[in-house]
Amino acid sequence: MKSAGRMGIHYMQKLNAANVPKELVENGHNRVIEASLTLIRERAKLKGELIRALGGAVASTSLLGVPLGHNSSFLQGPAFAPPRIREAIWCGSTNSTTEEGKELNDPRVLTDVGDVPIQELRDSGVDGDRLMSIISESVKLVMEEDPLRPLVLGGDHSISYPVVRAVSEKLGGPIDILHLDAHPDIYHSFEGNKYSHASSFARIMEGGYARRLLQVGIRSITKEGREQGKRFGVEQYEMRTFSRDRQFLENLKLGEGAKGVYISVDIDCMDPAFAPGVSHIEPGGLSFRDVLNILHNLQADVVGADVVEFNPQRDTVDGMTAMVAAKLVRELTAKISK
Ligand SMILES: [Mn+2]
Prior knowledge:
Helix 2 (22-53) runs parallel beside helix 5 (128-144), helix 3 (81-89) crosses helix 11 (320-336) and helix 10 (288-297) packs parallel to helix 11. The protein is 39% helix and 15% strand. It contains eleven helices and eight strands.
């Protein structure tokens, strides 16, 4: 399974530049980076102008795709998720109104600035550190354009680190994070990769980007995961005690005294019965309605969010998980936009 999953996207390997002069490669990837950031900057500006022309908004959700899968420890399919999620958001089988009545067709509620071209950047020889910085930079370009707030479509969970870093830096202080996941993703590093999708929250906590981190849906956690959780003061809510914690988790109030609240949703927080299209199938998870109850009842100023780890290569033929991911994006949009 592992090799098949990796082979499927082996064209995304890094540029083989062993015999090419260093300056030539450096120059080339600088131009590709500049072009990538320019496209996102101009699209964000355009959406900002459109929203202001329509009368403005206090906060407006803008989608930013980050099709990155190579920091996964098992399969890399999440790189293919953003277009599948977008397709499902606008699928004709449903309408454009969220459960609580927000109209997604209104650009003041939802816009899209496109994808960070991860494949093109890697192909031009950009390394891991630089790639993370480009993701951060892209998020900041979206936030630069008031009233846009980023809702990031992953990608594997490694992207939450550069995204949260950008949100916190841009707002000038730590934020509270609500993290829904089967896993705590808090290993110091995984298989030697400090940017692994299993380590993103270690990087976030080390960086001081989060004041509080609440992890909900946890049911695959090792000794190191618990120790790291303690070390960083993480509030870990495990599935085995969910029936006891439900009342509290479905009535959360976060972000008071912080710069805002960030929501990170790993699709595998849900039971595979609801969302089979994930790389790490982990039975015993939240229902889709559990997740919506937590989100709908949350009292918070949501400054950014991500939906990660949807793996289209493992979805049903009808794209059931794509619809699940899309509905989460729709409901998160309703939570952010005002
Ligand atoms: Mn997970």
